[in-house]
Amino acid sequence: MSRKWSLSSTACALFVVLVFAGCHKPVSYPEIIAAPHPLTDTLPAQHRILGKSIENRLIECLTLGYGRDVTFILAAIHGNEPAGTPLLRHLAEYLPRHPQLLAGRTVVLLPVANPDGMARNSRDNARGVDLNRNFATANRLDNKNSGTAPLSEPEARAIESVIWKYKPNRIVSIHQPLACIDYDGPGLILAIRMAQYCDLPIKKLGAKPGSLGSYAGLELGIPIITFELLPGDTALSAERLWRQYGKALIAVIVYPDAVK
Ligand SMILES: [Zn+2]
User: Mean pLDDT over residues 44-54, rounded?
Assistant: First the structure.
């Protein structure tokens, strides 16, 4: 029995129990099948709490689909680069309405990777650590802004836990304001694909010490994109952001297929 069917069956049974509780008329099987319920046509979606930030804010991710091909997209690892967050929330609403995009695929979304930094409009987390310098890499620097040790920060550990749990085939980390598509490790082909679907140019910024790009791309060999949006994108609505960058994100999810 598939998970989707299992989920639908459970929801259906729950609906029937709720609707027909106290009703003396026997319910026929066709009536049960015909009864509307909210989960019938949705894809398996799972909210997970990955951990808590230094200031006890929840670090939450959403998983859609259950296929073997996995894309992991995160936003706001730098708290003062918030435009990726509404973009991912829009993506989270879009995918269930286009379930064909998730055939054989899983998408893991982490819309706010640095919740304390976002709350105070700061690049760093609440301890003054740049999370994008806190990963266990050969090029990591030991200093206050990079954290006292690799993965010293709970937010970086939460991101790493997604990588180890879901073993993504591709990763996109959304930043601002450098207006380009940067890549690490074997990410060039993916960068070229994304560039076909948005106006940002490919630019190699170089592997930063202790960054997620260095960790995933160089240490683990996962194609990873640092998707640098424009500075002015912070002021845009989710719909406008989606018009500018939605297709590029879909291109990552369906890779190597083309966006239709
Ligand atoms: Zn950044």
Answer: 93
